[in-house]
Write a structure and sequence with these properties.
Helix content is 29%, strand content 39%. By secondary structure, the protein is α+β, with helices and mostly antiparallel strands. Strands 1, 2, 3, 4, 5, 12 and 13 form a 7-stranded antiparallel β-sheet that branches. Strands 6, 7, 8, 9, 10 and 11 form a 6-stranded antiparallel β-sheet that branches. Strand 9 and strand 10 form a beta hairpin. The longest helix is centred in the N-terminal third of the chain and has 44 residues.
Length: 250
């Protein structure tokens, strides 16, 4: 009886060893691929903060041996584009290959209020940016008397820009349309400082296009769409493309 069971035991042991070897190989290859993606991301984006990369498909490490990375999740912090600092950048790319192509994906990022305020003119530098839960708000004292005001602004977007348009002003509990300020004593100067401002987001990484922007407790939360491309490394907005290409395909 023991002799009959011996081949079964050996076969089971070999199968277990094989599965373990496959798992170890997958992990090692995936780790190497993720490290190279991190290096390529640093080369491409020059972030000031941390960068991570994760292959999310099952046995993604072994798939890299055939040139396929599958779905890749990348995070980066402190990315500068068109003079704007983007924090908490998180991208999910599908159909990624070792040659740098992708079938597309999506991303999120945040423009911190401190970074946004530097692009809204002199009046905004004296006000605090935030949100009332719906609109972008600017609050603080204005005028020679330092009266407290709250300005609510609407947000519109294009693929590569954000426009903030002051809509209402609340002074001493009274809400007025910005257009009505010119009819109030001393309101003309405030109205002149509350003009629409457009913030450019030209040269977004990987050809990304802005689809929406909304205020939250940290800044403007952006949603972006990433189109399919045959060259992630060489796409628009990539400084030092040649070096990144070498890193990605190593």
């Amino acid at each position: 009886m023991k002799l009959r069971r011996t081949p079964v035991i050996i076969a089971a042991a070999l199968a277990a060893a094989g599965a373990t070897a496959v798992g170890i190989t997958d992990t090692l290859v995936a780790d190497t691929a993720q490290q190279r993606i991190v290096q390529a991301t640093r080369c491409k984006l020059h972030p000031t903060g941390a960068v991570t990369a994760r292959l999310t498909d099952p046995l993604a490490g072994l798939d890299t041996l055939t040139g396929t990375l599958g779905t890749v999740r990348i995070t980066a912090d402190g990315v500068q584009r068109a003079g704007i600092r983007l924090s908490n950048v998180a991208a999910t790319l599908h159909g990624v290959t070792t040659h740098g192509s992708t079938t597309g994906g999506s991303a999120t990022a945040t423009i911190p209020y401190a970074a946004l305020g530097r692009h809204l003119g002199a009046a905004a530098t004296r006000l605090n940016l935030g949100t009332d839960g719906n609109d972008l708000t600017l609050t603080g004292p204005v005028g020679s008397l330092g009266l407290p005001v709250t300005v609510a602004s609407s947000i519109t977007t294009t693929a590569h820009s954000i426009t903030l348009t002051p809509a209402t002003v609340s002074i001493l509990g009274r809400a007025l349309p910005v257009s009505a300020l010119t009819k109030t004593p001393g309101g003309a100067g405030l109205a002149a400082s509350l003009r629409p401002h457009t913030v450019s987001l030209a040269g977004l990484p990987a050809g990304a296009r802005l689809t929406s922007a909304r205020p939250d407790h940290t800044g403007l939360a952006l949603q972006l769409a990433i189109p399919g491309t045959s060259s992630l490394v060489g796409s628009a907005g990539s400084p030092g493309g040649a070096g990144c290409a070498a890193t990605t395909q190593a």
